Structures are given as structure tokens and as C-alpha cells.
């Protein structure tokens, strides 16, 4: 299997090894009464809802808490109804599915949530695994998603091993990564996560949160998600997509993804998606919202105002 140049491999490993009751939603009134959808119950995700206005769904990445979006949600809630998703098994959320599939079941539940709550083509913003979930959601249910922003998320993560990598070819590496997650003792796992967090964010406070979220996550959920992320290839569905997509990606000449490498990979992997807007965010690692909060806020505002 072809690998990217040596300088890029720590970034790849970091991405792969990172084990990184909402308010009621009012429906349209009927006669003199307003109907409220029944509370959404799922063993794959939970959703917290804040604010009022056009709907925005925020999906966190692998191992992360919905709190990764708190600053964004607090800023948007004055003019948007924000749906903060928490994926099962991550950051203390219960996990009841052993080593079963992760990504497709939660995509199915996202679609069910949008329908059950009567949301009208909401904007979706997803980080990392959350971005991949958003792509799959828009491909499988184009009627449910108004627009999509992916945040440092590729349609096929194992493409970072090289342009000729396939899902089948990545499977041994996916199994190995999952085994490392399951097999590490508590101290070793924390050490691994602390090192990984430094590659994922330049911000010390965010690095600490990444480690805390990882340690609070269910290892079986992390391993299942890792295997799914490394072997899920959403590229075949890109060319038929009609949902407008904005793809943000990080570049950092000082210890993160080198700009030229990041630009080449994201340009190549999104090449068949009609009308995609690719935006590089410099001086940032994987957690763009933490490393470049002002720039991220500007890009989110522009995305939602289109």
C-alpha cells in the first residue's frame, strides 16, 4: 500500500487514533393549538436544542462531546435553532452495541430525527466523523439536508494512505487500529491520547478536553467507529450529489498538515463533487473551531447566510 510522505504520517496516525434532552421543537400550529413532536429517543444519539430560527444540526467527531460546538451554538442561538448532536458511546454517552456497526446506524437515526421533528431541510455542520456522516446523510436522503459544511473531514479517510487505497485494502489497518484501542491499558491509553491530542489541536485547553472525552468514551464504540471511518468510502456518491457542500480543511506549517499536502489531498478527494467550495484554514490542526475560532465563526456565518 502506498503511503503519503513521511512528514504526513504523524498527522494520519493522529486522525486515525484520536478517540476523539433537548428542548421541545415546535411544529406548525393546527387551528388554535401548536403541536409539539414527541421527545426523540434513540440508543444511537441524543440531541440538545437551543435557540430559535432556521435549523442547524451540529455533529461532533470521533470520541468528541457535543461541547466541541458549545461556543458555536451559543453564538448562533440568537438567530438559529441549533441541534447539538451527541453520538452514543462518546464522551460518557452510553453505548449498547458491542462491536457492531457505528456509522450507518447513526446516519439512519439522524435521518429519523429530521423527519420526526419536522425539520425543513436544515443546514448540517459536521466535524471529522460528523462530516462524513453529513455526506452520507445528504447522499442517502437529499431531500432532508438543505446544505452541508464538513470540517476537516474527507469522504474516505484512508485515502490519506495514498490515492490508490481501497476500503478493502484499508481493512487490516482498521482492524489493527481498533485492536490498539481495545487492548491498551488505562494508563497506556491516556498516554496515547495525550500524544494524539497534540497533533489534533494547537490549543492546550482543547487538547485537555480531547483527552478527557476519549477517556470517558466506551472503548468498544471508539473501536467500532474507527473501523467504520477507515473503511467507509463516500466518494462514489459524490458526483450525483445535489446538496451544496462547503468543505473546510486545516493546514499548519508548524507541526500540523503542511499546506501543500492538505490542499492536494482535499482537492483530489472532493474533485468529483459538483460545486464544492473548498476552504483552507491555515495555522490550524484538526479542531479548526478551537484553533482558529474567529475564522471559523466567519466561515460558518458565510455558509449559513448563502
How many angstroms does the end-to-end distance come to? 41 Å
The CATH homologous superfamily corresponds to Alpha/Beta hydrolase fold, catalytic domain
Count structural domains: 1
Strand element count: 9
Strand order of the largest sheet: 3-5-4-6-7-8-9
Tell me roughly what share of residues is in helical segments. Answer: 40-55%
Profile the largest sheet.
Answer: 7 strands, mixed
CATH class: Alpha Beta
CATH-level-2 architecture: 3-Layer(aba) Sandwich
The helix/strand class is alpha/beta
What is the overall pLDDT average? 90
| Residue share in β-strands | 15-25%
Could you spell the SSE succession in H and E letters?
Answer: HEEEEHEHEHEHHHHEHEHH
| Poorly predicted ranges | 1-34
Query: Number of helical runs?
Result: 11
CATH topology: Rossmann fold
Describe the protein's architecture and organization.
With 306 residues, the chain is α/β, with parallel strands linked by helices. It has a single domain (6-17, 40-305), classed as Alpha/Beta hydrolase fold, catalytic domain (Rossmann fold, 3-Layer(aba) Sandwich), CATH 3.40.50. It has helices at residues 9-17, 70-76, 103-116, 129-140, 167-183, 186-200, 204-216, 219-231, 259-269, 288-291, 293-305; strands spanning 29-30, 33-34, 45-51, 55-59, 81-87, 123-127, 147-151, 245-251, 277-282. The strands form 2 sheets. The protein has a 7-stranded mixed beta sheet, sandwiched between helices. A two-stranded antiparallel ribbon has the order 1-2.
